[in-house]
Write a structure and sequence with these properties.
By secondary structure, the protein is of the alpha/beta class. About 45% of the residues lie in helices and about 15% in strands.
C-alpha cells in the first residue's frame, strides 16, 4: 500500500489500473478491502483508489484526539491532491457517503461524478436535530458497552438495536458478508471505535442544493426507511441526482449485490461521460 504522510498520522491507500481516478471511501469499522468487487470490475478502465480512513485498516490509529467527517474529508482532499487527477469520480459507502457529501458541499463541481452506496446523512435508527445531539447522547452508554463487551460486542448490540427498530435485516442479507463485517470490527480498538462512532453521530449534514456533480444514490431494499428517505433527499437536492434501489440487499449493498451495483454504477458513469 502507498502512504500519505500527514502532520498527525499516515493515511494508507492502494491504487489499481490507469485512467481517471475512481476513489472509493469505505463504511464505518471496515476498510478498503470492502470494495474488492468494484476494484476488480473497474480497474481495467479507471485508476481505482481505495483508502483506509483514520482508525480503520492499515491506517489505524492517528494522533487526532477526535475524529469527524470533516477531518476525514480533509484527508480525502489531501489524497486527491497527491493523485493529481482532474475531475475524479468519488464513491462512498455509509460513512464514506458522508465524506463524499462533505466533499461535494465544499467543491460543488470538482468531481465528475459521485456514487453513494447505503447513503446516509445521520446515524440510524434515530434522526435528531443537531441542537439535541448534545442533550441526548449515546456516548456514555457506548463507553460502558466498549469496556464490557469490546468493539465486536458493541457493534453487534448496535446492529441488534437497528434491526429491532427497522424490522429488517439491514446490514446485509448475506450471512457471510455480515459475519465478515462483524469480524473486521474486532481489529479496531475500543478507543478508535468510539472516535469513529463520535464522527458519525456528531456530523451535521450540509444541504446539497448547490452541488452540480451528477450523483447516484444506491440503496438495498432492506435498508432502514429513515436512510432511504435521506437518500431520496440527497438525490432531490443535487442538480443531477438519481436514486436506485436494489432488491435482495441491505446496507452493504455493494457486497450483497456486487454485480448489480457494478452494473448500475457503470451505466451511470456511461451516461455522465456521454453528457
Amino acid at each position: 500500500m502507498a502512504a500519505l504522510e500527514l502532520d498527525d498520522g499516515t493515511i494508507h491507500y492502494q491504487t489499481s489500473g490507469d485512467g481517471r481516478p475512481l476513489v472509493f471511501v469505505h463504511g464505518g469499522w471496515m476498510d478498503g478491502t470492502a470494495w474488492e468487487p468494484q476494484v476488480n470490475h473497474f480497474a481495467d478502465e479507471y485508476r481505482v483508489v481505495t483508502l483506509d480512513v483514520r482508525g480503520h485498516g492499515s491506517t489505524g490509529a492517528t494522533d487526532a484526539d477526535q475524529y469527524s467527517i470533516e477531518l476525514f474529508t480533509d484527508d480525502l482532499e489531501a489524497l486527491l491532491s497527491r493523485l493529481e487527477g482532474d475531475q475524479p469520480i468519488l464513491c462512498g459507502l455509509s460513512l464514506g457517503s458522508m465524506v463524499v457529501q462533505e466533499f461535494l458541499d465544499r467543491h460543488p463541481n470538482s468531481a465528475s461524478a459521485a456514487i453513494l452506496g447505503g447513503a446516509v446523512r445521520s446515524m440510524p435508527p434515530v434522526e435528531l436535530p443537531t441542537a439535541m445531539k448534545s442533550l441526548w447522547s449515546p456516548l456514555p452508554a457506548l463507553t460502558t458497552s466498549l469496556s464490557l463487551s469490546g468493539s465486536t460486542g458493541t457493534f453487534q448490540s448496535m446492529l441488534q438495536s437497528i434491526q429491532a427498530t427497522t424490522g429488517k435485516r439491514w446490514l446485509s442479507v448475506d450471512s457471510d458478508v455480515r459475519a465478515e463485517a462483524i469480524d473486521g470490527v474486532g481489529d479496531i480498538s475500543a478507543t478508535e471505535y468510539r472516535k469513529i462512532f463520535d464522527a458519525l453521530y456528531q456530523y451535521d449534514p450540509p444541504e446539497l442544493t448547490g452541488v452540480e456533480t451528477p450523483t447516484l444514490v444506491v440503496h438495498g431494499d432492506q435498508e432502514a426507511s429513515l436512510v432511504k428517505r435521506q437518500g431520496s433527499q440527497i438525490a432531490a437536492e443535487v442538480a443531477d441526482g438519481t436514486r436506485v434501489e436494489l432488491s435482495d440487499s441491505g446496507h452493504l449493498v455493494n457486497l450483497d449485490r456486487p454485480h448489480a451495483f457494478n452494473r448500475v454504477t457503470a451505466n451511470f458513469l456511461e451516461r455522465v461521460t456521454a453528457a
